[in-house]
Amino acid sequence: MGHVDHGKTSLLDALRQTSLAAKEAGGITQHLGAFVVGMQSGASITFLDTPGHAAFSAMRARGAAVTDIVVLVVAADDGVMPQTLEAMSHAKAGNVPIVVAINKCDKPDANPERVKVQLAAEGLLLEEMGGDVQVVEVSAINEVGLDKLEDALLLQAELMDLKARVDGPAQAYVVEARLDKGRGPLATAIVKAGTLVCGQHVVVGAEWGRIRSIRDMARKVIAEARPAMPIEIEGLKGLPMAGDDIVVVESEERARMLSEGRKKKFEKDRLTKLEEERPKASEEEEEEDETKPERVEVPLIVKADVQGTVQAVTDAVKNLNSSQVFLKVIHAGVGPVSQSDIDMAQACGACIVGFNVRDPPSSIALAATQAKVKIKLHRVIYHLLEDIGNFIVEKAPGTLETQVAGEAQVLNIFELKGRSKSKGDDVKIAGCRVIDGRVTKSSTLRLLRSGEVVFEGSCASLKREKQDVEAVGKGNDCGLVIKDCFDFQVGDVIQCLVQVNRKPKFVSSESGAVRIEC
Ligand code: GDP
Question: Which residues form a coiled coil (predicted)?
Answer without folding.
Answer: none
